[in-house]
Amino acid sequence: MEELEISKKAIKGDDDAFLEVMQLYKESLLRAALAFLKDEHAAIEALQEVTYRAYKKIHTVKEPAYLKTWLTRIMINYCQDQVKRSNRVISDNQVYDISVYQDQSLIELKEALELLSNEDQQLIYLKYFQNTKIKEIAAMEKIPEGTVKSRLHKVLKTLRLYFKEKGESEHV
User: Record's superkingdom (predicted)?
Assistant: First the structure.
């Protein structure tokens, strides 16, 4: 059965179709969770929580073609909440475990992304880590495509400036 047809049935309350949808997007959702949480167990837990939340709210989806984007949005929001909670715990205890990031460039990228607002982080993640089309992001955010493009341009400019300044300060 076609993806769109399965999505329509799931939105209308068909439990089997919902399970099929979750199976279709499971890998993508797990990758999203891993990108944020950096822990396989936490990512699996996130998938379970997102499955539950999606099941409860799937009837609110208006456009079946954007069901995957909707699920990804739920995952990102959940993961950002988890990261905020763990950052509070980490900063309270002053424990910093950077051993997860073996490559210096990953550390620098993570630092740069943390300077961005949650909305901008989400935009970068959707566009460059999930390869979400600008049109889909616009539909998900309920804003014009031009606004998505200008926000992307602004965020990328900010990141370029950050890396340029960082590079210059290291060579002083």
Answer: Bacteria
**Nearest-angstrom CA–CA distance, 95 and 36:** 19
Encode pLDDT of 20-74 as tens digits.
999 999 998 998 888 888 888 999 999 999 999 999 999 999 999 889 989 998 9
pTM for the complete prediction? 0.62
Residues 6+ apart with CB under 8 A from 170: none
